[in-house]
Amino acid sequence: MIPSSSPSPLDRAAELWGIEPHYWDIFGRLHVTSDDTKRAILTGRGVDPDFERAIEERLRGERQRLVPPCLVLGAGPAELPINAPDGLLATIDLRPESGEPARFEAPVRGGRLRLPDLDLGYYDLTVSVPDRAPEAARLILTPDRAYLPEDLRCAGIAISLYGVRSARNWGCGDFRDLRSLIDWAVEETGAGFIALNPLHAIHNRRPYNTSPYLPLSVFYQNLLYLDVEAIEDFEDSAHAQRLWALPSTQAALAALRQSEFVEYESVRAWKLRFLKLAFLTFLREGRHNPEFCAFVEQEGDLLERFATYCALDEYLHQSNPEIWI
Question: What's this model's pTM, rounded to 2 decimal places?
Fold first, then answer.
């Protein structure tokens, strides 16, 4: 349960200046922002240490702003809210993200300024009226809807590949499952596409290295999705085949398939174990494979750095599970 806090001037100031009162970390632990931390952050941001006065001045400034600091509008004629009496003539200096700056004038009518027709995009505005200091604003003009080609009229299925189960996978969906899913979706539902989660390489370990949105590399894919059984060197490796044939191996993989959740560490450990055996066979029999040599040469330093990182990460984490790199 999150501890309650009284609405003291310090707490109100912290909220106004965007300081979170608490957060939960990935391990499920609650961290409450201390008063000393709030004061240090507010001081670092230049907030008056008399927090009641700082709050009053900030709120008064927001109420008295000439124009909002940022405004997002759709296509068509744009109107800018302005805190000024009707009839005043305002001067607007407009700087687009591309193109030449422009200046124009417009009267205040009903608390609004009518802007000229503008292209979609981002604009920096400076608005001036008599007897007031000029104020800056950010204007963002967006389309009313995302672009949709006229010939794009189809439905699809969104899946998280890691969550796909089959009678043969190792507790995590792989590329063979994906091909089977595509065939089923086309034949049975008439789907036009499959939307996938990111397939980037990740650490495949808990508590927080299992998110497809926190990749360790965006250039290479997660080994969990490999169909290891389809790799030629897996079939040619006597060591891999002996390990594969063991009842204990098949029982372990069956347990992973039946697990309620994806057991990232265990799936990774099994796949990496077989991949290493397959690679030993490849090194003995196919070191000069032209496709492999071409791939290594093409990837160059990027592949070497990625492989070095993975090797160091595996070694360091095995030596100390508290090390996360």
Answer: 0.63
